[in-house]
Amino acid sequence: MLEVIQPGLETSVQDYPGRIGYWNQGFPPSGPMDSWSFRLANILVGNEPGEAGFECQFNGPTLKFGVDTVIAVTGANMNPKIDEKPIPMWESIAVKTGQVLQLSFATTGARTYITFAGGIKTEPWLDSRSTFHKAGVGGMEGNALKKGQSVPLGTGQGKPGRKVKEDCKPVISTNKTWVIDVVVGPNDDWVDEEGHQRFLTSDWKLSAKSDRTGFRLDGPDWTFTNKAHNKSPEHGAEPSNIIDQGYPVGAINLAGQTPIILVNDGPSMGGFINPYTVPSSSFWKLGQSKPGEIYHFNTISVDEANEAAMKIRQICSESSII
Amino acid sequence: MLIEFGDEMNLELNFMGQGLAAAVEENKTKGVVETAPCFASMLIHYDPEIIRFENLKAQMKEMIGSLGPSGDIELDSRLFYFPTVYLDPWTKECVEDYCEKITKKVWDPVFIAELNGLADEHEFVRVHSRTEYWVAALGFWPGLPFMMPLDPRCMITAPKYNPPRTWTPQGAVGMGGASTAIYPVATPGGYQIFGRIPVPIWDTERRFPQFENSICLFQPGDRVKFVPCSVEEFEYVEQQVKDGTYVFNVVEYQKFSVGNYKQWLTTFDKNQKI
Lengths: 322, 274
Prior knowledge:
The complex is a heterodimer. Chain A is α+β, with helices and mostly antiparallel strands. Chain A has helices at 35-44, 193-201, 226-229, 283-287, 302-315; strands at 2-6, 10-14, 53-57, 62-65, 69-77, 81-82, 85-86, 93-95, 100-102, 108-116, 150-151, 177-184, 204-206, 214-218, 241-246, 251-255, 258-262, 269-277, 294-300. Chain A folds into 2 domains: 2-162, no CATH class; 177-315, Cyclophilin (Beta Barrel). In chain A, strand 16 and strand 17 (258-262) form a beta hairpin. The two termini of chain A are 29 Å apart. By secondary structure, chain B is α+β, with helices and mostly antiparallel strands. Chain B contains 7 helices and 13 strands. At the A-B interface, strand 15, strand 18 and helix 5 of A face strand 2 and strand 3 of B.
């Protein structure tokens, strides 16, 4: 058991890959945005890579342990301390009943992951413990942590002193700019050549109006092909309107002129075009970027995106631990 | 992977999407994690470690080729009647809030009436509430139905918001393109909004028998009829919902015959004004 002394800005229970198999009813996968850091945190404490842990956003929680266990902290640096003493990240650590883990503001990155040997044992909902805040389901009472809550923990076989190899950690940007891979499509033929060039050569600033549903981007306007202007009326008259369709997770969704990257808690369908898609291998970068930071987009092929995802999957294994 | 079956909204294309999704499920196509069929397309979430894009594409082409003709289809189809306040104060307030905080626009029902050559918002209500709606897909938000009018004479179209709204009242009825939707909970949204129902269409607590098997009320192939009502009637039903005494007004003994429907379509001029 774990007592929430301070909840932090938005600390939620997540598991990986999340709530899969309900996209056709409108349920998003949820799950950790930086699943690379998340999976390694689980492996450190001896769990399966997808076991439920915490995702902490921008400002972390203060938690008091009601059991002896082994924990790990990965992802963004929120200067974690136990009983006021700094502890290393990317390493499994033994904690005793009564000790207090305290995280503060993220200095590098945006999201920190905390895992526990044996995982968090909240009630699964539609086969997953991931929190989907917007609909109030999963996790702790369907929401981010609240002060005073008791979080149930499992029991595991964690060993302290296990570390992630230096070259197996994601490298979090420190200069406020990110190169994000994108795959072209599915609705790329609605944007004209200048529109594509502008997208790929411009700075895109992550808006403060972003959350786990969507990352809004500020940048230049879009221009469109004939297909977007001359179409049957059931699409809707605006150039970015299309007959409602399924959205892939990671779609760069063009609502009017505002691109929104649909992330872990995003909508499954809708009537706006998706000219590009961020593949799962780049999601950790989205998860670690803060509002105000700049994205540059770089196109890769479907095959390259698949290779990149498989490479991360290989890294998220025992072979990355010393 | 997104598969597009066509460039318009009709029952035929929706059946292709639903039919392909059913075929994928039945064949247990390797590497497919899940599918999401919509009006005229189907999205596939697949595992690239098990199947490559090109390989999946070839398999899907083959499966589409072997889908049977939709004219033979007869399926169970529930018909839900919803008391609906059209031109209601709640969505109106939401649009006013949008105008104040985001950008000015004409009140949605007036805007739609003008675009579709209808006399005014009242004629829009008459046309919109006249037809049954076909639930083509669920998505955007858990349990949100994407619906198309079954009577083509009631086909109205509208652009989607630019930029989208940051909130929408729970139970709001709206449309974008030729699609009509009901917002299950208060969410952001991009459809023009003009009405509201008091009946829940998603229920995590499963307080009503309709939610026994799923917390989402609808499944594809259901039909909906909006029955215009007053604010007083809305509030009466809303209270019943709160008390848990509300009984859903739903017909559950009918089959929808695509053949009969297509035959019916030939009996009138689709472009006729009604």
